[in-house]
Amino acid sequence: MDQQDMPAAASVIQFTVHASKTAGSGLARRGTLRLPVPSTSTIAPAPMEQATPSLIFQSRLAFLPHLTPAHVALLHEPPCICVALEHLLASDVKPQRELPDGLHRSFGYDETKHAILLSAREPGSTASLATNPADHLTLQTPRGVRKHTLRDYARDVIAKRPSIYLLPSDDPSHLDPSIKRTRSAIARTQSYFEQLASLDDLRPILGNAFFQLGGNRSQSLRKLATHSFLECVDERKLSVGGIAVPLLPLRRGDDPTRKSYSQATVRQTNMMPTHTVASDSVRADTEVEELVQLVNASLNGTSERLPRMLLNPEGPHEILCLIIETGSDLFLDDWASRMASLGVALDFDFPAPANLTEAAVGLNLFDDEYSLAFTPLSHSSLGQDDGRTTRAYVHHLLHTHEMTAHVLLSLHNLSVMQCFMANVRHAIETGTLLSEAQSFSRAYSASYDFVIKAEAGFDAVHKVRGKGRDRAGK
Questions:
Q1: N or C: which end of the chain has fewer CB within 10 A?
Q2: Where are the alpha helices (DSSP H) in 119-204?
Q3: Are residues 334 and 314 in contact, defined by beta-carbon separation less than 8 angstroms?
Q4: For residue 267, is it within any domain?
């Protein structure tokens, strides 16, 4: 793309930390991320502000699952949305593929309210693809595998004008790559960064990019990836907007195809058929502790002035732990939408009520116990339920395979997660996050076995009424 085709007003993100490492909040930090507003004007508009820690919601084909832009306007606050480039490469019509009006205008989002994160691949996707060559990316589009050069990706970033974007990484597609393959992935990710940074067209907005730190499940290799990144930044005097850590490669025992929504969330239950709540919680705590150690192996040594993004956390317990133990600022979340797809209504409060012990954070509304439950969708004060949407109503919609059920659940779940994060930010400001997190752990079980039951309910209805629809986990 020629220089004159670029937006005249190119600005980069700014991150300010207001409170960090307070006595009652661990490593958690409260900040403000100022994001550039896409514009073709010669005068840059005022940036939009995003309070952190906060969530970014994963989209499908640039839309939040089950929701239209009109639905998105009903959420508690304007969401930040992640768009995967590989979802947009299915069209043979050039204007539809290239989106000359940018992502915001093409999909009905407000440029001054909705931040958009662009990624080459869908974060968290574990589609088995061929190894990425040195000069292009391998993307899984709706119409098959497609090769995409780094220069093409740079053109996409410039033309589509996202608020921020992920620098591409070379992700091993199998579950347990060898040390040699992991080292190769680290080197190739570094090479992608250097090639993109050398492009004159992209350099003005390199400050909006998030670099992905890899290394699989080895602390030493993760430290190597971080050292290589810092060395490259120092030697070439480059600057990026932030750093990102994908969590899916760090999870022990996950199915790489991720066909089941419950694989990553209740992996401990799958391995222990005769489980108990206590044993599940111990196993979950152990795995989250390992996750924290691996994330910190990547983050240690990086500048605290850079915002930290974690990709694909699983549920409020894990998010709380990662905020406190790693000081992360942004969380790319697809868990709440996946729960809505499975017929689960999130039902938790933060701060947690004092009279609860080991309660579930979600309700499986496929369960017949809700067939006559004419009570609000959730008792959580975090949602925006007006009381008119009852559990029995959504239960009926789910069993008749009505999409309205998933629309209502998506609105509810995303609003609950947004309010949850708002209350987390308040707890950081007041220095009470550690005590509130401990109360939350006592009140709500870390075992998400309700997801397995919801998946069984979904499958049963699908077999009766699905009529050719794809299974939920694919």
A1: C
A2: 150-160, 179-197
A3: no
A4: no
Q: And the tokens for 344?
A: 């689960």
Bond preceding residue 53 cis, omega within 30 of 0: yes
Q: Which residues pair with 20 in a beta bridge?
A: 29
Residue 89 burial (CB count, 10 A) = 18
Do 335 and 318 form a contact (C-beta atoms < 8 A)?
no
Expressed as residue numbers, the domain containing 352 is 14-252+288-471
**N-terminal to C-terminal alpha carbon distance within the chain:** 36
Give the total number of structural domains in the chain.
1
391-399 helix and 450-465 helix, angle to the nearest 10 degrees? 50
- The residue with tokens 């009424």 is 465
168 within domain boundaries: yes
Give the length of the chain.
474
118 is a domain residue: yes
pLDDT in tens, the chain (474 residues): 444 444 444 578 999 999 877 778 899 999 999 998 876 555 667 889 999 999 999 999 899 999 988 899 989 899 999 999 998 887 554 545 567 678 988 888 998 999 999 999 999 787 777 778 888 898 888 888 888 999 999 999 999 999 999 999 988 766 678 899 899 999 999 999 999 999 999 989 999 999 999 999 999 999 999 999 999 888 888 889 999 999 999 986 543 333 333 333 333 323 222 333 333 444 466 788 999 999 999 999 999 999 999 999 999 999 999 999 999 999 999 999 999 999 999 999 999 999 899 999 999 999 999 999 999 888 777 776 666 789 999 999 999 999 999 999 999 999 999 999 999 999 999 999 999 999 999 999 988 889 999 999 999 998 887 654 544 444
In a domain, 7, yes or no: no
- Phi and psi of 95, rounded to 5°? -60, -35
The position carrying tokens 């958690």 is 28
Report the CATH number that the domain containing residue 59 is assigned in CATH: 3.20.20.105
* Residue 27, CA distances (Å) to 285, 295, 322, 330, 352 in order: 18, 13, 9, 14, 21
The answer, yes or no, to whether the previous bond of 316 is cis (omega within 30 of 0) is no
Helix-strand-coil percent breakdown of the chain, rounded to 5? 40, 15, 40
Query: Within 10 Å of residue 454's Cβ, how many Cβ atoms?
Result: 27
- Tokens 């053109």, located at residue: 155
Cα angle value 359/294/253 (rounded, 5°): 60
